[in-house]
Design brief:
The protein has 354 residues and is an alpha/beta fold. The protein is built from 15 helices and 11 strands. The protein has helices at residues 8-13, 34-43, 46-51, 53-66, 80-87, 106-110, 122-135, 148-157, 165-173, 175-199, 216-233, 256-260, 275-282, 301-315, 337-349, and strands at residues 72-73, 89-91, 97-99, 141-146, 203-208, 237-238, 241-242, 245-249, 266-268, 287-292, 321-325. Bound molecules: coproporphyrinogen I.
């Protein structure tokens, strides 16, 4: 077992005692950091940055040099999996993601290959191995993937979407086509996350950014069912240590009970959920991650501190809380704000762990 100098993030996910509440930020590497913009310019474009293990490692470590974070997250993107399935991903300058060959028929789904993560996605595994080496055991490394539903929205819509009309049309007009797609993507994600774990990821998180756009039963059938399949297929122990799994559905506050029942270790919460209510509902089964509104980072350090203290008091005493934002950090927040946020969490949480 390789030792960690700071393992409070892993301990909190397993609801084991900690000295203070751990924290990391969703999208902690990114455009709000001037050094990220410089490295990205050096790489040329976003996918070249992802494919270069040394540069991906560099941007992974950048936020850790500035802030006292308790975890690093692999620098990559959820859309690497559909790219490896042959859809042809590109990011135009100043635009969102685009797929050259979106999924539009049953035969397109039937012809989709399931990528070998050590071949088509070897660049991601190389980044994981490089980052683990450079972290030198300071903090754990988080691996991640998109949920099958969230990945399928990009694969069917051909890029970002607001109304999700193409995938919802498929869901209601040709549900079997969508189920086959989700099943294949879930298969690909299991192989991908297990390869990340074998390469050195010490916990994994599944981002279901768009699960919240689904109707109640559709969420259970088309999103949660496939995340459950992934949880069942994951390696849960590696290198003598448990590998905790976190599920995050943005807008998923209505389904906390069902998400917690998948057998995951932790549930990520957006800011619409009250942490005290969530703890009362599922805190005996899972750890909770979240959940400050990312827009609070536009406020003064005093206001940020106040919000941190309220959320800490909502969770109350004991382990099982990983502090985070309720979604990714915005690209235009002052670089000083995450410092006020992280330091306040460590400082004000200690009494809750006595
Ligand atoms: O121009 C740039 O530099 C690209 C911006 C960017 C970045 C920094 C993209 C494009 N992806 C990333 C990195 C990224 N993406 C990480 C890195 C690790 C970290 O520091 O946290 C992670 C975990 C993701 C995950 C991701 N990508 C999600 C799920 C999380 C979330 O925020 O909801 C989603 C939905 C994507 C898709 C994506 N990648 C990038 C863009 C512009 C988009 C589209 C988002 C949309 O449809 O609105």
């Amino acid at each position: 077992m390789s030792t960690l100098k700071n393992d409070r993030y892993l301990r909190a996910l397993l609801r084991e005692p900690v000295d203070c509440t751990p924290v990391w930020l969703m999208r902690q590497a990114g455009r709000y950091l001037p050094e990220y913009k410089a490295t990205r310019a050096q790489a040329g474009d976003f996918m070249s940055l992802c494919r270069n293990a040394e540069l991906a490692c560099e941007v992974t470590l950048q936020p850790l040099r500035r802030y006292d974070l308790d975890a690093a997250i692999l620098f990559s993107d959820i859309l690497t999996v559909p790219d490896a399935m042959g859809l042809g991903l590109s990011f135009g300058a100043g635009e969102g993601p685009k797929f050259a060959r979106p999924i539009d028929s049953l035969s397109a789904v039937q012809n989709l290959p399931i990528p070998d993560p050590e071949v088509e996605l070897q660049y991601v595994m190389n980044a994981v191995r490089t980052i683990r080496r450079e972290l030198k055991g300071d903090v754990p490394l988080i691996g991640f993937s998109g949920s099958p539903w969230t990945l399928a929205t990009y694969m069917v819509e051909g890029g970002s979407s607001k109304a999700f009309t193409k995938i919802k049309k498929m869901m209601y007009a040709e549900p079997q086509t969508l189920h086959l797609l989700l099943d294949k993507v879930a298969e690909a994600v299991i192989l991908y996350l297990n390869a990340q774990i074998k390469a050195g990821a010490q916990s994994v998180m599944i981002f279901d950014t768009w699960g919240g756009v689904l109707a109640h039963r559709d969420y259970l059938d088309f999103s949660l069912q496939y995340m459950h399949k992934i949880v069942d297929g994951l390696i849960r122990e590696n290198d003598g240590r448990k590998v905790p799994v976190t599920l995050f559905t943005k807008g998923g506050g209505l389904w906390l009970e069902q998400i917690a029942n998948t057998g995951c270790d932790a549930v990520g919460l957006d800011w619409t959920v009250n942490l005290a209510d969530a703890k009362a509902q599922v805190g005996h089964k899972v750890a909770l991650q979240g959940n400050m509104d990312p827009s609070v980072l536009y406020a003064s350090p005093e206001r940020i501190e106040q919000e941190v203290r309220s959320i800490l008091s909502d969770f109350g005493t004991g382990s099982g809380h990983v502090f985070n934002l309720g979604h990714g950090i915005h690209q235009d927040v002052p670089v000083e704000s995450p410092k006020a946020f992280v330091d306040a969490i460590h400082h004000y949480s200690a009494p809750y762990h006595k």
